[in-house]
Structures are given as C-alpha cells and as structure tokens.
Amino acid sequence: MRLTSNLQSYGLATIACVLAFALAWQLDAPSSCFVLAVMVSTLYGGRGPGLWCAAVSSVAFGYFILTYRVQPASGLSSCSRFAVLVGALLLVNYLVSAKLRSDEARRKSDEHYRVVAETALDAILSVDDKHQILFANAAAAKIFGWSVSELIGRPLAMVLAGFPSDGTSKVTELAGRRKDGTEFTAEVSFVAVAEDGQHGFTGFVRDISERKRAEEALRTSEHNLRLMVNSIPGLVSTMTGSGDLELANKQVMEYTGKTVEEIKNWLPTIHPDDRALTAKRWRHSVETGDPFDVETRVEGADGGHRWFHARGLPWRNADGHIVRWYILLTDIDDRKNMEDALRSTQARLSRATQIATVAELAASIAHEVNQPLTAVVANAHACLLWLSAQPPNMAEVAQAVDRIIRNGNSAAEVVRRIRALFRRAEAETNPLDLNEVLAEVVGLLRGDIAKRGVIVQAELEEDLPSVMADRLQLQQVIFNLMQNGIEAMDTLTDRPKKLVIRSRRQDTETVLIEIRDYGAGLNDFDKSFEAFYTTKQNGLGMGLAICRSIIDAHHGHLWATPTEGPGATFCFTLPLQSAHTTLSSGSSARS
C-alpha cells in the first residue's frame, strides 16, 4: 500500500514537471513554472517527490530552455540563471517540507491532547476572559450532567459557583452544580492561558463528594473509637513497632497525672522493684514479637503505686512486620490485696489443721516417746546391777550408759519433730532431699502404722535431685496424705493394708511423689480438694485444700488419680532446685 502511494507521489511529481515544461516552453516565465511544479510536488507528495521534481525541472531547464528558448548574452549568464533556479527549487522544497512537518506535528499534538482530554476522568474546561465555556471534555459532561454541546458557550458560574474572577492556579474547593440542581464538592485547579492575543483559563474539576463523605466517616469513626477507648475500664496505649509510646487514653493521663509527652519515658513510673523485670519483658516482646504479659506496680498521680496486669499484642502489616503495639493495663490492686488476705487465711487454716491433728497423734506420740524412755529405764537398772557386782563390771556399765544416751537422744528427736510440726513459723525454703523428708514423716507415723497393721512399701529413687521447699510445710503435706491413706484402709479385712510411697524424677525440671493406698478409693477426685468437702465422719474437709495451696505456693501441682485395682493414688510434683530460681523470679514480680 505504501509502495503504491509512493509511486503515485512520484508520478504526480513527474506530471507536474511535464506540465511545467510545457508551460515554460510557451510562456516567457520558465522559472516560475518549475518553482510551481516543485511546490505542488512537495506539497502533495512530500519531500522525496519534491526533490525528484526539482531534479527533473533542473535538467529540463538547463538542457531545453537555456539551449533552445533563452539566448543569454554570455555563458556566465546561463550558468547563473541555472544556479539560481536550482537554489530556488531546493529552497522551495525545504520550506514546503518544513511547513508540512510542522503541520503534522501540530496535528499529532492536537490529537494527543484531544485523546488525553477525552479519556481523562476529571472534567477539563477552558473559558475565555469573560468566563464563557470554550471547551469541555466528556468527563465534564458526565460530572455536570450537561452534554458537551450544551456546555459550550455557557457561563462557568452555571456549573461552578464562586469561581474567582482572576482565576487561580492553586487547588481549591468550590460548590459544583449539576443539571438537575444537585450540588457537590468540587476540587478545582485553573491556570491562566493566552493564545493569539486571547486570554482565558483552562483547568481541571474533580468531584470529591465521595472522598469528603469518606473523610467525614473516618473522622466519625476515629471519634467513636476514641470515645470507646476512653470508656474502657483500663489504661490503654499504643506503641510504635520499635517500642516507643505513641498514644494513650484518658485513663492513663488521669491516673498518672501526666500528658502523653511526659509519659513517653514511661519506665520511671514503674515501681523500682518491678522495673528491671518489666523492662526485660518489654524488650523481649519488641525483639521477638511475642505477646507482652507482666504484673507490675505503676505510680499514680498521688505518688502511690497500684498493681496492674499489663498485656500487649502486636499489629502486623501485610509483610508481617510489626507496625504497632496495643497495650492494656488492668487494675488488679484489689485482687492482689484479696490474694494476700486469702494467703493469710489459708495460713491460719493450715495452723488450725495442724492443731486439729494433735489429738490423732497423741497415741503415736506416746508410743514413740515411750519406747526410748522404757529402754532408758531398763538400761539404768542394768547399769545399777553391773555397778553392784563385786567387782563392778565397768565395761558393761559403759555400754549401758551409751545405750541410755542413744535412747535419750531418740526421745529428744521425737519431741523435737513433734514440736517443729506444730510450731508457728514463717516459711523458709532450703534445698531438701525429698527421700529424707519422706523418711522423717514415716518415722512420725511409725506408731500409728504399727497399731493399724499397715505395711509401708517405699520405692525411692536413689540420688534424687534436691528441691527448694519449706521442710515443715512439706512434712505437713506428706503427713496428711499418708494419714489419709492409712485411715482409708481401717475397715479392710479381705486384703493387706499396704501403703506404697514412690519418689522419682519425672523430667528434667520436676520430681514426682506418689502415695498410694489400697482402700475403698474416691468417688470424685476433683471435688476432694474443695474446702470443707470430706468423706470422714469427723473430718474438717480442709486437709487436702491446704495441701494443694502449699504445693501451689512451691510452684508444684497436687492431684489424685484412680489406680488399677482398689485404692487411690495422690501425686504431687515439685520443681528441681535448678528450675526453682526461674520460677521464683517470675513469681516475685507477680506478688
């Protein structure tokens, strides 16, 4: 197709040359004819056909016209005329080609701007110096509800109220008006233009009513959210992803008596005893993204400190990066005071339970003390007999005295253990050998065990690791569990009364103690640990509840479990000495 077009252009140039030659042959103006031919060839064919026409015209002029039609005075004159003609032909070709290129560039530019204007989502308007609309694109017709032809020639005030008389180059908001009379918020930006001595304005108009509604909804949502946050019965704040305070609700400022700027450095408001642990937990959460959880004391506006349970959760973006932390501090000061009061009450109940067991131990105490005292009397009589012999048997006397000393110490040890069990003293944790504590309690119950005909089977693991605990409190727990097992087998007649005691290492951090009896068992294992629940005719129902509170205070766990065959098994675990330090540090922060 393009080849055909080129052939036509060159054909047109050739025809123009032929016509120009014919006219030049007849007329006395050959130069003008050939210039006109080049001009027509270039104008309708382009630069290439124009040059072709110029070349052919130059040959025709030089060979035919100068030779046969024009008789110059000298050869120099003919050459000059030929050179002038060639220069004129080339200049005409250049000028016409440049004009064509310029017109084509302008046409393409106009087409480009037309496409941009027609496809723009914003309205584009051009007005003259009297604010009459000269141009409007399709988006303007869509936004204002008028057709393009209806907008042309109309005053700009018809669609935009309050347009400044001098125009404006800055972005501003005006009231837009549609054909149906409805108004909307328009974002307007006009700039002054001048063309061919005519002044006017061209600009963009954007319907931002949806954006304004969204902004208003966002402001309302933010207002409602702040009202909701301020009504939360707790101290709420937000932190940046790096851990810096960002915002705080009204309760935070009312409690601390400080502004948000003043509490950006919030660590000094933490109680000195809790500050290191709180800072450590917060740094760990910021670095790892783990939830923040700590119980700490916070200073109030009155200078006093109250207990708060601080919890924080991270908010992550689409890439998984933490961009904000949400923190809630719940006041637990009253709960902590109640826990302290409850611990005090439990301690008093524990004391009452200890005293209540005195009557049950009376026979055992008498038996335990009577045995060494009887031996002391017997050895004293023997000592007298050996001394009255002639001669006195001093060797036997020495042995009898030695036995008297040992039996006296045994009686004193029994009395010491009984007194220690019922002496009121503060809990004191020390490294303990649980096998040794179990043996001590078995020694205390030896008389009762013999009286009731119970067989004690001890399965104690050798080299059992030490635990950190209060010896007297553990004695009380083990004593209570063993005493319950012994009493549970009182009515047995069809099988042996056997009490099995086991100790072993459960895992790398805990030791397990099991005390099993072969009695009637339990109906409700969980309910057995409730206060004032008892299956004994004269029981108080406090023993197991107090035992559980003691084990819980030692970071352990006490439970009952059914067994294969008759009876029940009571188990408790305690952390090893190596694990107790970590648990105690966390517990001290909570208490």
Summarize, please:
The protein has 591 residues and is an alpha+beta fold. It has helices spanning 2-26, 30-45, 47-69, 75-119, 138-144, 148-151, 209-231, 250-256, 272-288, 333-388, 394-422, 434-444, 446-452, 471-488, 543-553, 577-590; strands at residues 123-128, 133-136, 160-161, 172-177, 183-195, 198-207, 235-240, 245-248, 292-299, 305-316, 322-331, 429-432, 455-460, 467-470, 498-505, 510-517, 557-562, 568-575.
Question: What report would you give on this structure?
Answer:
This protein has about 600 residues and is α+β, with helices and mostly antiparallel strands. Helices cover about 55% and strands about 20% of the residues. The protein has 16 helices and 18 strands. A hairpin with a 5-residue loop joins strand 4 and strand 5.
